[in-house]
Amino acid sequence: MDKSKTFTAYFFLILATALWGGNVIAAKIASNISLEPIKLSFFRNLVVIIILFPFVINKINIIYEIFIKNWKIIIILSIFSVSIFNTSMNIALTTSSVISASLMPSFAPSLIIILSLIIFNSKISNLQIIGVVISFIGFINIIIRGDLLNLSSLNFVTGDIWMLGCVSCWAFYSAMIRKIPKEIDNISFLFLIFFIGNFFVLPFYIFESNYHQSFSINEQNGLLVVLYAAIGPALISYLLWIKAIKIIGANNSGLFLNLIPIFSSLISIIFLKEKLESFHIVGGLLIFIGIYLVIRKSANGQN
Fold first, then answer.
1. Cα gap 110→116, rounded to integer Å
2. Interval 216-229: pLDDT, tens
3. Does the model's pTM come out above 0.90?
4. Are 51 and 57 in contact (CB under 8 A)?
5. Which of 197, 217, 271 has its CA nearest to residue 22?
């Protein structure tokens, strides 16, 4: 593989995860200013669609033809990435801490490998299996907040369970991204999945807004949060993520998700005054040890 392309992919992934780290903060700020999670997701997606529309307006017929030919996989990718992934994270941050929510995506690389094994029959070594198990233990440690009594009594923070679903959806999306139709460019694909994904978010947005009697963004600084979430984590990060996966693959790209907790935890500790708990440290260490075992084979050039 061309080293310059590899380093470019690494740069894309570092920038994407930095923006996603900020996205966790944005979702928490939205919760703090009472900006409803599904409303945030809907308007974020809408802003992305509006920004991308001028770039694809001359390709609408081509995009439509590609969608008709590949509608099943495109709808699946749209639902798991745009509809469920981001909305679940927004809901999670209403009760979960930024540090817990940002540590959990670190388990995604292990999930991506498991899903690649199940769906595409990818090879996995015994060492990688051990790494996946250790990562999973670290992941569960964060969910139960370091106390087995919480597991026996099913006493969990609701947001942590939402993050479990969020991470699972992103892992599935990353494993399936190789199924993107070859004839569609990245901008057109991004427009398509945000358009379709937001179509599935729409009924939940209407229900939530009707319940709270608020359909517009009236919250203080709410518009700024929406614009950041749309332009940075949604638009730029998705494009960088897709480009990187096409260069170095889903498994290797997934490893960079481990940078998200570093970026978001530092910001949350400094600016949101969150506290780093012992179960965060133990769970994070177990996840990173597991990830090391998972990638050790590829680091030796044998994967």
1. 10
2. 888 888 999 999 99
3. no
4. no
5. 271
